Amino acid sequence: MGKRDDLIAKYADDLKSKCGMTPDMDLLAKVTIGCGPAIYDADASTVAATQPGELETVKNNFLIKKLGLADGPELMDAINAVIETYGRSERNKYRAVVYYMLTKHFGKEAIYG
After folding, report:
1. Cα torsion 56, 59, 65, 71: sign
2. Which residue stretches of the chain have pLDDT < 70?
3. Is the pTM of this model over 0.90?
4. What DSSP state is assigned to residue 94?
5. Taking a C-beta distance cutoff of 8 angstroms, is the pair 15, 100 a contact?
6. I want to staple 96 with a disulfide (CB 3.0 to 4.6 A). Which of 9, 22, 32, 70 is the partner?
7. What distance lies between CA 2 and its chain's CA centroid?
């Protein structure tokens, strides 16, 4: 197994143990690949949920640009809901896990088809 496969397994474990979800491994792999080289960078691989600027970046770069959603208050509501599910006190909120949960939340799995 390569480093990416190890990371995908770690993300799947987070979804199961911290978020109470059974991951769709195919979708999780595609979302992880979609994150690009950021998954290998300690800082970029996580979402700093306490920083409003970071949440704006998730909204603009992922929800609006990648998933093609229209801007509105429901986007930030969804991001906050995902952060709550992951656990606000959880120090490492992996970007791929957050993006996976947002993709599922908005029913946009077809983008990774």
Report:
1. negative
2. none
3. yes
4. B
5. yes
6. 32
7. 21
**What's the CA gap between 93 and 71, in Å, rounded?**
23
Q: What is the secondary structure of 10-79 as a DSSP string?
A: HHHHHHHHTT-----HHHHHHHHHHTGGGGGSTTTTB--TT-HHHHHHIIIIIIIIIS-PPPSHHHHHHH
- What are the Cα distances from residue 85, in Å, to 15, 65, 90, 104? 10, 24, 10, 13
Nearest of 49, 74, 51, 52 to residue 63 by alpha carbon: 74
Question: What pLDDT is recorded for position 25?
Answer: 98
pLDDT tens digits for range 84-109: 999 999 999 999 999 999 999 999 99
CA distances from 106 to 25, 79, 95 (A): 18, 11, 17
